[in-house]
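Hi everyone, sorry if this is the wrong subforum. Our group has a chain we'd like a structural model of before ordering constructs, and none of us has done structure prediction before. Sequence below.
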Amino acid sequence: MTIDALRPPDSTPDWLAALLARGQAPERSFDPALVAAEGRDVTFDHDPASTRIRDEASSGQRTTYRGDTEVTAAAPGHTGDPVQVAYHADLPRAAATPEAMQALNPLDPATWPPGSRISLHGADQVGTPFETAFAQLAEANGLDAIDDVRLVMAKTTETKARPEAELRVMSGAAHVFDAPTVHGPGSQTLDRQDFSVHTLVQRDPDHPDQRAALNHLLVTGTLPDGTVGTRETVSPGSINALVTDVTSGEVNDVTWTFDDQGRPLHAEGTLTWLPGSSSMRDTDTVENRAQSQFRVDNGLDGTEHTGHIFAYRFVHGHGPVNMFPQNGNFNTGAYARMEQEWADWLDAGMDVDISIALTPDGALRPDQVTVDYSVTDPVSGGLVYDPVVTVFDNAAGQLFDSISRRDMDAMIDDIG
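Answer:
Right subforum, don't worry. Here is the predicted structure as tokens:
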């Protein structure tokens, strides 16, 4: 299907032709009045009649297409000129009707069917008022030019557990989104490339505060509070990840080492904050697909889980880099209790240094997991807790005697 087929590729868009005719160059940033509004009461008004759609394709239950449409940004006391916005859309096939596609405003999630994914490419924003915002996103993700930047916004489906659709807002290098299982966060260890991605999950995207944060991101490239930055640096035999709170600057620093087959041997790191939640993981389709593929690749049966060396809530998604075949009872029992203790220490304001070894080296399925950790007060530098090294069998029936959250404050006070 084509809706109002596009003009030939060598022709000049009407909006650009009009500017050139007036002797003006396209604006590369928004008016100061829009910037000063910080997203409050900012609207992106959409003209459905201007929508043009091409390259429509359907596969399975999804429909993808490329579109562009005319959007006008406005704030109290100011209305800008119409801007032609190019975007890539991925919708549930059943919802991708001509009417829905025509009505979709790429800058207003309220117009998207649940389950939609809208991608804005940096190269398409050159010469538009969005160029400054995408240049800011490029800098935040360590990219030299905006051509390699993607801003991807995914609206969740509505379920009994999550009756209100959430919004997952991500920015980063193209290969994080275009080839996540080839070289990005879902890829095999030996195929990795360095990457950076910033992620924000809005639980209530219609709330004025959350909508203002998204609007300000679109206008200026400012990453909202609550955004998590994940950066991987790949070296021979190891991968380092920095997981950063863009608001506070706190960082979880984790390094995995591997054998020559790309299987994890050891992981160690320092945790200083809790960047994850069930919502963050539930909407991470790349990590969830990588976890499912790991089960297939390793022939896991019903008693085995795709175990995370460091829980998702500590480091976010890194695919098979952070996975090993793990007995299900061990995963949901002793290992989970240990991870909860670490989370409780972080909640108490402490840092946790952790070293985890999988043995024997290079085994497809490790027989044992050896964990050594300690807890430090980042203010005083004092050692709060340093238990003996724990050696778990990768089997059912493992035990872990965790410290309760209510006892932690007294242990912290004791080192004062």
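For your construct planning: The chain has twelve helices and 18 strands. The longest helix spans residues 334-347.
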